[in-house]
Amino acid sequence: MTMLQIIALGFVLFFLGLMLLFTWLSGRKKAKPVILRPIPVFRHIWRAIGLAVEEGTRLHFSVGRGAVDTQESASAFASLSTLKRIMRIISVSDKAPIVTSGDSTLAILTQDTLKASYREMGQEAQYHPTAGRLTGLTPFAFAAGTQPIIADEDVSANILIGHFGPEVALIMEAGERKGNLTLAGSDHLVGQSVLYAGFQEPLIGEEIYAGSAYLKASPLHMASLQAQDFMRWLIIFAILGGSILQFLGFAFPGR
Amino acid sequence: MKIKAPLATITALAVGIITLGGYFTTAPTFSMLRTIFLQWASWLAAIALLVGIANLLGVHFEKLTTGKKGGIYSMVLVLALIGTFALGTYDYISGTWGNASQSWLQWIFDYVQYPIEVSMFSLLAIVLVYAAIRMIRQRDNFTVIIFLLSAVLVLAGSVPFFGVSIPVLSDTLTPWLTHVLAFAGARGILLGMALGAIATGIRVLVGVDRPYGG
Asked: Which of A186, B47, B108, B192 is an S-S bond match for A205, by CB 3.0 to 4.6 Å?
């Protein structure tokens, strides 16, 4: 085992330890409720769900096109986790939501997530295989395949969380044209800049991984968010400390 | 049915932990298992592609047969899919498969798919300009001023003005904005996203998030 591998393993185990610690702390009788910083998109998700339920329309959720065997798998899994949570909240809706994806493995996982959610709610009969759709295999084919769903299938709100490149602008534009409430976040840097430049209140950076915690999935989701924040501050202090030490003339090994 | 979910969870956790372990140790058993699992994942991804195409075909075939709005587009898609599959099969039988100058599939890519995707990319530029203007009208805060200022400075510094580069802006300010400020911001975002990805990975590994329906 190299030094780098030991550090990496230590980092992962420390992260896991922090998650367990925060879960234990939140489970105590005298524990104060965890206050999360407000992220407008997650507040609007409740509105989007409410809108779909009240109007008897559909919610369109897109998990993006991050393949599960690539680096983008984390955003795909975070998106599926948020979808699962949303499915539980939206169970009272008349019309089943439509979920789109731009990767075939992700499409299968989407269908599986939908099926499992309906089964958990005791509404397995409501599941239809076409509710989870593969709309295209290239970025623009994915966007082109998603646009007609927004336009023609009685959709009132769109939630896009996952791996989206610049093509997300075309999907968002379809939502804007229809007058839908559209909320989005991507793990792709160009996708994020497109969302920031063109649309109000997108999810930026690690916010896309926080969906399930903000939708109150479980104490471990909250704990993972707290651990994430703790590690972020640790990294900030390490960067600042390293910069100060280097400024003062300390020579780091390997530099 | 009651056995299926825990079994799927246990299998997924075991495979995940062994694969992760393979990254942190040089033990041959772990490395071998990791390689085998990754190979399986590649094969499954290839099979998933066929399942995905069947899903796409199923959705559009249903739209076509039930007479839903936009059925004509579904018909075009189904015909294009069948036609492409037939031409690919013909390529394979006639031995022109993979031959760039004689392959029908290559012809479809060069003269149908590529031009359409390029057209959509051009359309994207218009959509983005329109969306940016709408954003400026809707937001009236400090970040919009910074956004506009940096966009104008980077554009003016990157594109020569009637063939003449603007002094200071082209050689100093624009490179500093793109290579120092933008890089620093991007790295900050990437660090945060890496932490989010680790948190999600751990949640999947310990079975809190089960994206396999278990």
From this structure: B192
